[in-house]
Amino acid sequence: MSGTGETTWVPRKRRGAELVLTVMAVGLAIFAYCAVGLGAEGRVPAGAVGLAVTLVVVAVAANLLIRRFAPYADPVLLPLVLCLNGLGLAMIYRIDLGMEARRDSWTSLAPNQLMWTGIGVAAFATVLLVVRDHRRLQTLTYSFGLAAVVLLILPLLPGIGQNIRGARIWINLGPFSFQPGEAAKICLAIFFAGYLAEKREALALAGRRVLGVDLPRARDLGPIMIGWLVSIGILVLQRDLGSSLLFFGLFVVLLFIATERAGWIVVGGGLFALGTWFGYLQFSHVRRRFEAWQDPFGDPDQNGQIINALYGLAHGGLLGRGWGQGSPELTPIGYSDFIATSLGEELGLTGLMAILLIYGLIVERGLRIALTCRDAFGKLLAAGLAISMAIQVFVVVGGVTHLIPLTGLTTPFLSQGGSSIVMNWAIIAILLRISDQTRRPAPPVQPVSEDEATQVVKL
Amino acid sequence: MSELTLTLIKLGFLAVLWIFVLSAVSVIRTDIFGTKVTETPAGPGVAARTPKPAPKAKVTKPRRPQRGTPKLLYVTDGPNAGQSVPLGDQPILLGRGTDAAIRLDDDYVSTRHARFASNGAEWFVEDVGSTNGTFIGSQRVTTPVPIALGVQVRLGKTIVELRK
């Protein structure tokens, strides 16, 4: 075998392109931070040097780490995420400034967020170093399932559980409060992917056809019923509509991807409608959300937050007020759940579109990794992580822009909040690991000189 | 800060943000198509590091073998080395049997081993249920595989190729 004329498909590493984009992303973040200071106070903020140094260190560390430990990983995920993280930091700093001007006492959130960004990148590095092959995670399928359930139950336990703003989703760990739901999201994605990679045939092939829809067997319905009950349980016990929607949506979409049966979407959609209806009848807080959605201006005292957010978006218009020129601090929680409308006010439709496009690109890369991945588990995991981000962004941005009823969820990478930042960095690390495995060229096949072995067979 | 400066900063930031998004999109666009590299003995690791070939070169590369039409099926190695059969419209059967176009005196070749056929534009090789298989490089032929000029196809110990 001379090998002449034999061509193989080798994906390019594109680490250089990644570096260029990373430089741009960090530049954007520093630009945004300085522009906030210039717009709001007329001078470059004092913390700009500290922020610039931290971001450059973080970017360089992440870049070197990928070069060393995941050389074939996707080149655009890291810059996109860094850009979002930087924009979030700038916006949180903006709201700090606005709050300081309005209130006497306000503890700045931006330094804390910067620290969490550092911890997030450390988590990113840890995942990238510890998980050398994503298929190893499949052996821990049920452990991750158990971990997810434990994490979801933790906030309900007396003593460490905390009730903040009507939702019982925080736990108190000494100086920090932590949202275990964010970690549970990753655990559940791994559990669903592992479970479905194993059971997909049984779910897909055994079943009856009713009204042109392939319905699975009753016993295979078990897991989806459990998934539904868990999400309803979260809804009932923790009053967390957003996470409930996210987990259930993730499960249904993964079932659909694993089995290619539209029946699951029908079943899932039906169960979701049932759950929503039940919630609407049963819980006053769900009903209030619906009413606030149908007619936000009917009860301005109750719906001040969403009304402020909508006025903020209108104030921003097409090109926005400019960094530091709007008044996003008027919207309560404008640095976390409502950060999308805060950004919409300062950057306008043009800027908000760019941000949504960045999310779109992250999801697209995730789905692309799922498409090119060679093993079922990796496919489902990458798709699950991408879909969970898509659902999360849709639910929260749709909620704050009055497209769907408002439910509390964090905006990945933008929102203020430690657990969200750290866990989303971990998600990106898992995606990059799968991507590295997928794009790495197969080891060269050693040509076997069969002649001697063949002689033995000769009769 | 004058109003003008602030407006310039605002528009400048939006412009830079969009330039960033569009550069990310263009990286993704070029990334959709991998690089086709000719496998070198040093392995694909080195090949992947070669500078990006111009997009035009990528397109023309697969077409290059089609420049000439093959006219001959030539046995380059094995007991029947040097024999050849002209290519026409008809498919050509190789094997040890009497109905083969070239009767190969090779113990590792089946009676009916492989068939070479053309669709008018390209020649294909197809294994017709041989015992020891037909190989292109290290790849066993399981379906009809298009072959270009000079690609070596191995049947048992015999190696054949298309020639002009």
What does this structure look like?
Chain A is mainly α and 459 residues long. In chain A, the strands form two sheets. Chain A has a three-stranded antiparallel β-sheet with strand order 2-3-4, with no helix packed on it. A two-stranded antiparallel sheet of chain A has the order 5-6. Chain A has one domain. In chain A, helix 2 packs antiparallel against helix 3 and helix 3 (77-102) packs antiparallel against helix 12. In chain A, strand 3 and strand 4 (176-178) form a beta hairpin. Chain A is globular. Chain A is built from 15 helices and six strands. Residues 1-5 of chain A have low confidence and may be disordered. In chain B, 26% of the residues lie in helices and 28% in strands. Chain B contains three helices and twelve strands; from the N terminus they run H-E-H-H-E-E-E-E-E-E-E-E-E-E-E. In chain B, the strands form two sheets. Chain B has a six-stranded antiparallel β-sheet, with no helix packed on it. A five-stranded mixed β-sheet of chain B has the order 5-4-6-7-10, with no helix packed on it. In chain B, strand 11 and strand 12 form a beta hairpin. Chains A and B meet through strand 1, helix 1, helix 3 and helix 12 of A and helix 1, strand 1 and helix 2 of B. Strand 1 (7-10) of chain A pairs antiparallel with strand 1 (35-38) of chain B, so a sheet runs across the interface.
